[in-house]
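Exercise 7. Given the components listed, write out the predicted structure of the assembled complex. Treat all entries as one system.
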Amino acid sequence: MVASCFLRKCLTALAGLLLLSFGSLAASQIEDQTEQFFRSGHTNNWAVLVCTSRFWFNYRHVANTLSVYRSVKRLGIPDSHIVLMLADDMACNPRNPKPATVFSHKNMELNVYGDDVEVDYRSYEVTVENFLRVLTGRIPPSTPRSKRLLSDDRSNILIYMTGHGGNGFLKFQDSEEITNIELADAFEQMWQKRRYNELLFIIDTCQGASMYERFYSPNIMALASSQVGEDSLSHQPDPAIGVHLMDRYTFYVLEFLEEINPASQTNMNDLFQVCPKSLCVSTPGHRTDLFQRDPKNVLITDFFGSVRKVEITTETIRLQPDLGNMESRYKKEWMDEELMEPLKYAEQLPVAQIIHQDWSGHHRIFGIPGASKHFSVIMIPSNTLTFSEQSPLSWRASPQVEDHCRNQS
Amino acid sequence: MGLLSDPVRRRALARLVLRLNAPLWALPVAWLERTMRSVGLEVYTQSFSRKLPFPDETRERYMVAGTNVYGILRAPRAASTESLVLTVPCGPDSANSQAVGLLLALAAHFRGQIYWAKDIIFLVTEQDLLGTEAWLEAYHDTNVTGMQSSPLQGRAGAIQAALALELSSDVVTSLDVAVEGLNGQLPNLDLLNLFQTFCQKGGLLCTLQGKLQPQDWTSVDGPLQGLQTLLLMTLQQASGRPHGAHGLFLRYRVEALTIRGINSFRQYKYDLVAVGKALEGMFRKLNHLLERLHQSFFFYVLPALSRFVSIGLYMPAAGFLLLVLGLKALELWMQLHEAGAGPQEAGGASGPGPPLPPAQSVGLASLVAPLLISQAMGLALYVLPVLGQHVATQHFPVAEAEAVVLTLLAIYAAGLALPHSTHRVMSAQAPDRGWMALKLVALIYLALQLACVALTNFSLGFLLAATMVPAAALTHPCGPRPLYAALLVLTSPAATLLGCLFLWRELQEAPLSLAEGWQLFLAALAQGVLDHHTYGALLFPLLALGLYPCWLLFWNVLFWK
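Answer.
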């Protein structure tokens, strides 16, 4: 009897030990997964897609923009978070033998116009001024909501531009140009107003790499379809429609994006490999020195989609605030204060060096300072949290999480 | 001149025709209207009439009247702001019936497409180019040539481009394209490139000036053939005639071409489907245009369909020729000043008064008379033939057209006798230097005229410069007078025209005998006068009022006593 009791005790102890070990293993797994939730630091996604050229023979630029629109919408960004600017109406052009369609593949395989395209800026509204106002937020009060970029400091923004360009400029509507300096300044205004968390800039024009040469704000990654001195070429003409349908770079980007679904883990390094010189004839380029994270840790869906991460668990997770990270963030803010002198273009601030020093392996963990609270891991839905008041110490949890937390304890 | 060389028969026929007052051939207007309407076009007609200055061979009458029929295919989804024209000029010989058939077939096909952004006008004209001119004048609301035409009921917007078709058979072995227009105007080179692209795409055989494209440019044959084509184009452009309906469109800055189907003895023939496909392709490309054709050259000469010589390359040649005249004038000016200074020094010791003004006044007086008389001669050459045709037919057994031509030649030859009469007007006090002043003025006059002509119609300017400049520079009263006289006569405008006709037929590999050449020359003279009055061609007034008086001045210089 005593032996069986002892055996039972041993068994329960063993079982308890095993459960504990499993539990701790599971808990550590859950904790790893939880940490992965907050890898990117953004809570909502926006897209600004701009086609700058008009006239029937620039059909391919509209098709480019609509292909990216289609992918971005398919991966989850809603129309309310997409600002689509098309400088001309190709679908309803009298020369279009298939009205209300815009094709990206010849033999009319893929109609990127679709049934529910929502164009926000159309025809002559696509101007440099309107584009810069959209980016910087300096919009007259009468502008409808669909024409505004209502991003906050937790927004990842995708900016895609296509049209005719040259060394250092992009042509709008055959009548005006935007220079790379203006664009860099607009992005700096966005950064100073905390209108983005991270920004992906893609441009498909001739000599596109010249447009991202002048960026000097942090957290920007840029891709271009050709280097300075090279022309971006168009892909294929359709004999029935009579024009070139797509540009090469965007054609292969579209093919790449068609493989992406909201759950895919493809990262930016794969996007950099899209359209090598053998297919594109021009040399695509990219710039990542202003970006804090390693591109191989950046998912495609961080910019092209708006992914709702859901993990259901029955465990309670203890989230530890990362004090080391908080201290480094304090230091970063202090350093930002120090560097408030006016910047000249001749000597650009080596932002790339500055943002990559002093801390490494940073990741934010949502936590409440000073106390640890238990709360089950909840869904953090993106695109529902938009802050109009940006706080520099944005490691503070959202009000909804706080409420939920308060209810728990 | 064929049937009409016998004056009796001619008069009888003319009276018969005029009494009948029936057209020899008429356009089936009602049938065309019905057919176009059934295809789905908006159909309108326009009637016109014109009083010719003298009845020419083809029409045999003074009053020419006709009806144009045109149908407009409206663009389904665009505002009617721009249009394209497909025109078929029909004439009394009805050699263009197949082209009307192709036009109707194309109209039916185009009607079923939805991608037209411009309206398309299908135009069938009567009386060949007279109808085209009447339609164009009414469309643009101008009246350049004195045509009486009824206003157009239907319009379609600004015309961007036009194509004229001439087909006499339903199978063709090759397509010939004509680019030279009225007064040597040319369409934008892009339109020709468009035609050539579709010839290549459709595998059609296309010719320029009736000559095939040389394949081998490395040996001598290729460039030689190119040179022949180039000379043919120069001769055609210099004549200033509209070589097809397209020539009249160019005046309104509407780019236009004429495409002729040739049915020769080749084995491989194309049917009208192939021609229609090429035309459809050209119209679709023109439909895609957003602006008028302006990117390519407007002034060029063509050695082949796929090669051209631009104005920057050929203008220096004319410039150098005219430089000869300028240098010669400069030499004469310096000689005049030396001669003026010489007697001045000699007479300065004797008399206090300056001897130069009297010499100058004598110089001026001796200049004015030849100038005025030559210009009056030119005016007579311009005005008298048409004015005096009735007087001529009353006194001589000739038809009106012949009367005009023969009066022209008579006045021209009368000018050769001028120096004898001119010298009676002037007193014998004209010194030796008088001819220098006259030649100086004549050289500058010729250089100015040729420069202006070369700017607008390079071929004409270059041709006249190449022939007249050597003779004008060499003319000298002292020296072998018969030789210089022969040279001057051979390079006079009329002789140049005769020579060009022989050269033209020689290049086309249909050489003329002397008698045929003379007949052709007379016909060309009549045609030149007629073109000037009906279309506003400028060759006849230029030669009569500008170059002939200038040439007469040189003739005067040669026979200076």
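Discussion: The CA atoms of residues 227 and 303 of chain B lie 6 Å apart. The mean pLDDT of chain B is 88.
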